[in-house]
Protein: Glycosyltransferase RgtA/B/C/D-like domain-containing protein
Amino acid sequence: MEAFSYFGDNLWPPDLNADGLYYTVYGWSRVYSGEIVYNIYGLIGKVITLFWKPVDGIYLIYRYLNVCLFLITLIVLFFVRCRWLDPASIGLTFILLPQVHYLYAYASCDPWSLSMSVFLFLYIAKLVDAPICSLTLDKYMVIGIFTGLIIVSKPYYLCSLFIPLSLFSIRLVEEIKCGSVLPVKKLIINLTVTALTMIIVAGPLRLIYPATQGDFVAGIKHMMESRAADEYKPSHPTFEGYLLASKGETYHSMLKKFPWISLTLKSFYGIFGHMQFHNPPWIYWSAGIGFSILLCLTIKTAISNWSRLDGTWRYCFILALISLGANIFISLYMSLHFDYQPQGRYLFPSLIAVSILLNGLFNLEKRAVAYIRIICIILLYVICLYSLLYVAGNINPRLLPRIEVMLKS
Structure:
């Protein structure tokens, strides 16, 4: 929250290693993260406090902003129409995962990153409905804007660029091969405008600010060395899960020694309160079975109808598998080479990919298969609600009486 508050009063990040900031045990302050959501929310929060100051503090404003963003994202997902994919399939995945609800319910920058990845994907999904070669220059500018916004979001959300940009590129190449006329000069102009728009959006925080700090990488290392807690100092890390690779650990030994897989899967579904509040085991098992059934139904429909499926969907299905695999590897890499954090939210850049695999063909399924899917979705939603209510009661005991009334009614 400190970063939101800082940018409510300042438009530009401070010099590296500045005093008066909140530093984590790693010696890091989020004001240096280069994520534009801090600037946007900080400014909006500052304006709102001119008219309303929450009793519980400005933190509540940032939470409300993320809740509003969640509602906007769901509205877009359930009301936008696309020829080759129903965006509601993504919306369904969002509302069936307690961790997504929880993510949007507190003040952090992750929701912004997730929503921007959804908006870029949906925008390009709509564009490939029409001939790519006939797109006007403003469409390329919008792609540049959304791409730039993702670049100045959480770094691991760069994974979310893979599916939409690959899909756009594949369709563009296909049309050119099929004889669509797109002068080389026009193509160069369009791509240049996209790149320039992206640089205008992302350049100040990702290029200009680091350039003002001299050797930016060396400056960060010095700051973390001087500000970090003793067990997290990069020169001599002693904390058990920090910089495992420097201690001789490998992927195999890390997975054998630590429960990375189980914690990642559980926290992808829902572990809350800084990984302290877990759901009852039966919730994880039930959700796992339910989602596995949804995956099997999609695979069955895909295999049965592969030759008849829209070419764009087939490309997207393959890209989803690649994207998810790459995202899992990046999360593993970060746990081994930086800090052991088996958090499912690090796989949220692939939520679109997961949604395609779980629900991407529900509108093509036969009646019997559709009934099975509907039953699974209803049960998964009930389990999701119970998970949120159960955990909410554990995190905030004051809510327990209200939850009991809700459950009885």
Summary: The radius of gyration is 23 Å. Residues 161 and 242 are 29 Å apart (CA to CA). The chain has a mean pLDDT of 91.
